[in-house]
TrEMBL record:
Coiled coil: none annotated. This is ParA family protein. It comes from Amycolatopsis acidicola. Belongs to the ParA family. PANTHER family: P-LOOP CONTAINING NUCLEOSIDE TRIPHOSPHATE HYDROLASE, PARA FAMILY PROTEIN CT_582.
Length: 273
């Protein structure tokens, strides 16, 4: 069993670059915490609905989803589904309806804080979760801003490849803007290195560069390139359900343990960035 956090943690998983392991990390970290008895909720805020697919929850058009939650048409609890992979693993799915949400939100009052309003303490209490992971689309648009306004922590996955840090400055300056104008409590608490290939010198260079730049915010655990991690979503599973003995699954277990230990010893570990 991993320790419960001192208080509920809401983490936005963000990186505007696609293909960095963002959704993969959100669902597998949530699944790993769930395996250890912590109740976790994944909010799929990406219109592609990949997190919903990996957790095998219904996300056909018409299913109560995060879209209706943002519009205030259904409550968080009404849109929350339990993944068949664990009773501790919950998901608010994304349907194709979310694709038009950014345009609709522009017309609305409090457009940047719609998700925050839906994720009130009372609403999350109804679900009884210890952790909330918000999986963002690969952009810095209004959906991602909503995720940042609703959370206290940002988790940034960075792939161990050339150009890894490209575009990161833009993400950090957006986080800074949200912090200044919309959510003073927001901070980068966690950076997770993904797609590490130990056979290449480049992976080690990127790892050293990221650790040198961001220090203790970077988890000690790195997620290796692993075919099982890539295959799992096509079976509607996290890698922990698909192949719990694989290197990918074990790495996500280790990363989740680090996150949980930080949360119980440092409050919500509000980060140093």
């Amino acid at each position: 069993m991993l320790p419960k956090p001192d208080h509920r943690r809401v983490l936005t998983v963000a990186n505007q670059k696609g293909g960095v392991g963002k959704t993969t990390s959100a669902v597998n970290l949530a699944a790993a915490l769930a395996v250890h008895g912590l109740k976790t909720l994944v909010i799929d805020l990406d219109p592609q609905g990949n997190a919903s697919t990996a957790l095998n929850v219904e996300h056909r058009s018409g299913t109560p989803s995060v879209y209706e939650v943002l519009l205030g048409e259904v409550s968080l609890a009404e849109a929350t589904a339990v993944s068949e992979q664990s009773p501790n693993l919950l998901c608010v799915p994304a349907t194709i309806d979310l694709a038009g949400a950014e345009i609709e939100l522009v017309e609305m009052g409090n457009r940047e804080s719609r998700l925050k309003e839906a994720l009130s303490a009372e609403a999350i209490d109804e679900t009884g979760v210890d952790y909330v992971f918000i999986d963002c689309p690969p952009s810095l648009g209004l959906l991602t801003v909503n995720a940042m306004v609703a959370a206290r922590e940002v988790l940034i996955p960075i792939q161990c490849e050339y150009y890894a840090l490209e575009g990161l400055g833009q993400l950090l300056s957006n986080i800074d803007l949200v912090q200044k104008h919309l959510n003073p409590a927001l901070a980068v608490s966690t950076i997770l290195l993904t797609m590490y290939d130990g056979r290449t010198k480049l992976a080690d260079q990127v790892t050293a560069e990221v650790r040198g730049h961001f220090g203790d915010v970077v988890l000690k655990t790195v997620i290796p390139r692993n075919v099982k991690v890539s295959e799992a979503p096509s079976y509607g599973q996290t890698v922990l359900a698909y192949d719990p003995g694989s290197r990918g699954a074990m790495s996500y277990m280790d990363a989740a343990k680090e996150i949980a230990e930080r949360g119980s010893t440092n409050g919500s570990r509000s980060g140093t960035l």
